[in-house]
Amino acid sequence: MTVMSYLGAIGAAQREAMEADERVVIIGEDVEANVYGTTGAGKSRRDKGDFLEMFGRNRIRNTPISEEVIVGAAAGAAMTGLRPIVDLSYSSFLYMAMDQFVNQVAKNRYMFGGQASLPVVFRSAMFYGLNTGAHHSDRPYPMFMNVPGLKIIAPASPSDAKGLLRSAVDSEDPVLTFEACPLWGMKEEVDEAEYRIPLGVARTVRPGSDVTVVAISSAVPEAVRAADALAEDGISVEVIDPRTLVPLDTDAVLESVARTGRLVVADPAHRTCSAAAEISAVVAEDAFDALKAPIVRVTTPDTQIPFSPALEKQLYPNRDNIAAAVRRVLG
Amino acid sequence: MGLAPEVLLEMQRRMLRIRGFDERASKMVKRGFIPGTVHTSIGQEAQVVGACMALGESDYMTGNHRSHGHPIGKGSPLGPLMAELVGKSGGVCGGKGGSLHLADFSVGSLGESGIVGSSIPIAVGAGLSASVLGNKRVSLAFFGDGAANQGCLYEGMNLAGVWKLPVVFLCENNQYALSTPAHTVTSGVIAERAAGFGMPGVRVEDGQDVLAVYEAVNTAVERARAGEGPSLVEVVTYRFHEHSEGLRLGTDYRDAEEKAAWLQRDPIVLFRRWLAENGVASDAELDALEAEVAAEVDAAEAFAKDSPYPDPAMAFADLYTEPVPIRGAVELIGAPA
C-alpha cells in the first residue's frame, strides 16, 4: 500500500493499463505536457512527461482542440483494434462532441447488430467549486445516463479511481468517467498492485441504520462528514456510493432502504433529471412500502454556475445541507 | 492503367449489383415491403465502385445515408443487405440498422450513418488504428457535398493531416443536398479545401467514368499506404432518383435539361461500351454478366422474404458486449406478420 492522491491514482491506473496492453493508447489535448498530472508517473510534477518517455508518441497522442474528431476517431480506432483512453479534460467540453457520443459511440454496437465493439474510455473532469464559471463547472453525467449504450463511472476516492479505471479499460463497451476536481487532492492508502473494481457494484462507505444517504462523486466525503456529525446526536447514517451510474447497483440501494426506511440522495448534478432523480424513482417504484418518509434530494439547483465564490460555494451538496436533509427525513 | 480483365469485369459486376439492388429496393418500397426511408445510389455507381475497387479487401470504409452502394462496392453479399432493409433477422445487422445504418465488418465496411458527416471521424479512427498498429490498412470516408460543410470533416482532415493517417476523404458531389444545389451553400471548390490542410485535393469532373474515379482514388490509396498521409478526392456525379424513395417535393429544384443530360451519362452503359470496345468482354459475355447479377438480386429478395423477423427480445440485445440490466424493458409485443 502507498499513499496516493486521486489524480495520482488515475495516473497509476493508466500506466498499468498501458504496460499491460500495447493496444491501449492515450489521446487528448495537452497529454504530452501532463498538465493535470495523470500522464506522468503519478507521484509528482517532477515526473512530468514520463508517459511520453515510457510509451512514445505513437501511443501518447497529443491532439488539436477538436473534440468531435477526437471522440469519433477514438471510437473508430476502438472498432478496429485499439483500446483508447481519451482525456477530454473539462467535462463541459464533451458537448463539443455530442453527435459522436450519442450517434456513434453509444449506437454503433447496437445498430450494427453486435458487429462493433467499442473498448474506449472517455475521461473528463468536473471542475466545479473552483470558481471557473459557467463554461467549466458542469457535472453532466445525467445527460449521458439518458443515452443507452454508454457506461458511466464517477469515482469518489483514490482507490476507486484506480480500480474503476482499470475495469473501464478492460470493458469492451465505451465508458465515460467523470472525475471530480474537488477530490483531486484527496489522499489515501492505495494498493500499488494491480486490482480492479467491477462496474455496477456500489460501495457501502459507512454502515448505518436510521437513514440511507446515497451520495455521488464529491458528495460522498461530504456525506461521510455529515454522518460523523449526526452520529454525535445518535443518528446512524448509512452512506452508499454507487460508484457506477450505468450500470447502477440498484440492489444495493434497495437493500439499504429496506433496512433504514429512509432515503436522502446527494448528487452534485443539477436537480432536474439528475442521477438523484433516477435513484429516487427506482426506490419509489421498487421500495415504496419500505419508506417511512418522503425521499429527499440534495442537488445543485437548476441554475447556471456563477463565478463569484460568494455565489458558487452554496450551490453544491455539502455536509450541512446533507445533514439538514437527513434531519428532515427523520421528521 | 493496365488493369486485369477480371478486375475490369468486377467493376462492372459491382456497379450492376448496386443498380440492381437499388432498383429492386425502390420497387420493394413502393410495394410496401421495405419500411422506413431508402436513398439509392442509382446514377452514382461509378463513383462508389471506382473508389471501393481502389481499396484492398482488408481496408476500411465508412459511408452515409445513401447507404447500400458502399458496402456492395466493398464486396458485401446482397442477401443480408436486402434482409436488413426489410428488417429481418437475416439482415447484416440483424434488423437493428435498416437502410440507414448498414455495416458489414467482414468486408471492412464499418458503418453507414444517418447523420451526414458523422461517420467521417470513425474513418479517421480506423486510419489511426492502422497507423498505430502498423498493419498497412487504409480507411476511406464517403460523404456527400452536403456533409462537406460539416465541421467534423475539417477536424478530421486536420487530425489525419498532422498525424499522417492513411485516410482518403471521398466527397461524392452529386450536386444536391436533398433539394439544395451545392453552389448555393458551398463556397469555393470542395477539392481545393484540401490545400488548407496540406494534403492533395483532386476533383474528378467525370464521376460517371469508373476508371477515372479508380485512378484518382488509387493514387490517394497508394499515398496513404506508403505512410504519406491523407488525401481529398471530390467526384462530380448525379443521382438519377429522388433524394429518398417516395419523396414528393412541391418544387422542381432540378432543371429538366440538366437531368436529361446526366441521364445520358449512365455509368453502367458507358462502361459496358468501353469494355466491349476495348475487347475486355464480348456482348454475349456482358449480357451473361448482367443476367448473373440479376439472378443475385432475385436471390437477395428471396432471401430477405424468407428470413424471419427478429424475435422481439432482440430489441434488448447488442446494446453492451457484457450484459447490463436494461431498465424499463417492456412487455414484448409480437413481430409484424
Automatic annotation (TrEMBL), chain A:
Coiled coil: none annotated. Its cofactor is thiamine diphosphate. Keywords: Oxidoreductase, Pyruvate, Thiamine pyrophosphate. It comes from Georgenia soli. This is Pyruvate dehydrogenase E1 component beta subunit. It comes from the Bacteria. Residues 4-186 form the Transketolase-like pyrimidine-binding domain. SUPFAM superfamilies: Thiamin diphosphate-binding fold (THDP-binding), TK C-terminal domain-like. SMART domains: Transket_pyr. One of its GO terms (molecular function) is magnesium ion binding. InterPro entries: THDP-binding, Transketo_C/PFOR_II, Transketolase-like_Pyr-bd, Transketolase_C. The keyword Oxidoreductase applies. The keyword Lipid biosynthesis does not apply. The lineage of its organism: Bacteria, Bacillati, Actinomycetota, Actinomycetes, Micrococcales.
From TrEMBL, chain B:
Residues 14-312 form the Dehydrogenase E1 component domain. GO terms for biological process: pyruvate decarboxylation to acetyl-CoA. One of its GO terms (molecular function) is pyruvate dehydrogenase (acetyl-transferring) activity. InterPro entries: DH_E1, PDH_E1_Alpha_Subunit, THDP-binding. Its cofactor is thiamine diphosphate. Pfam families: E1_dh. It comes from Georgenia soli. Gene3D superfamilies: 3.40.50.970. The keyword Oxidoreductase applies. This is Pyruvate dehydrogenase E1 component alpha subunit. Keywords: Oxidoreductase, Pyruvate, Thiamine pyrophosphate. It comes from the Bacteria. Coiled coil: none annotated.
